[in-house]
Task: structure prediction
Amino acid sequence: MRAVVVNSFGGPEAVEVVETEVPRPGARQVRIKVAAASLNPVDAGVRAGVFGGAGERIGLGWDVAGTVDAVGAVGAVGAVGAVDAAGAAGAWSVGDEVVALHYGAVKPLGTHAEYVVVDADAVAPAPATVDAVHAATLPLNALTAAQALDRLEPAPGRSSLLVTGAAGAVGGYAVRLAARRGIAVTGLAREGDEEFVRSLGARHVTSDAVADREFDAVLDAAVLGEPALAWVRDGGRYIGVIPHAEPASVRGVETGAVEVSADGARLAELVRLLDEGVLTTRVAETYALEDAAKAHARLDEGGVRGRLVLVP
Result:
């Protein structure tokens, strides 16, 4: 099968499409025939060596939408095989249309491939209201937003929340999910994005510095760091989206960063919200798998509204 990897760190030119063996699922795993897989900024970070792994072949891709085509099965003690025509890993059977998050920055194979193996409990049913290309943009960004809000614990009707990068993938989901909980959300976004951010449920939108405001919590999806921390009231909470990169605590502000985790049950809830029209997906462009380097080059140019998606 074809898979997108990096064998050395660098820019888009480091991205390679290689031939490799089709992976086999182990116990409590499923193999997904990839229909679409989105490209995220974390993939550019992996490509550039931000997460380490020098000297290794690293597979790219975290998000996937596709069809289960094999499931792990346990036979005799210690024996693990794969069931290719029937069977299930947990609730999953061959032929199920699914989405999943394949967690991990340094892994031999990612979702930018024709097939990928993931843990069964990372999988959720595919949305019924959008195609695979749009569905592939949901897992990483929506789970990150939801889990960041869990960390912040804003109180409905009482807490004020600032979301930086409110027009972005993570920020947009965070605004929508928080507003749905009854949180007073202010979105920080570029000029021109105000109408979109308001449509997500933000009560206020600004493209300027908000130093005159003190928020109970800040979700720093734009990775502003200390400037965003300055907008948190004394004793409030700050959550970033890059683990271990959050600013040091000041004024009693609790600081931290969300490290997204694969959670099929939570992903299923987000899929349900998508199907109900609460959440929306945005696709900027699609690329064939063999054009992965071109997709990386487009990502590096910046200004992308929505996700770039690879289609095998």
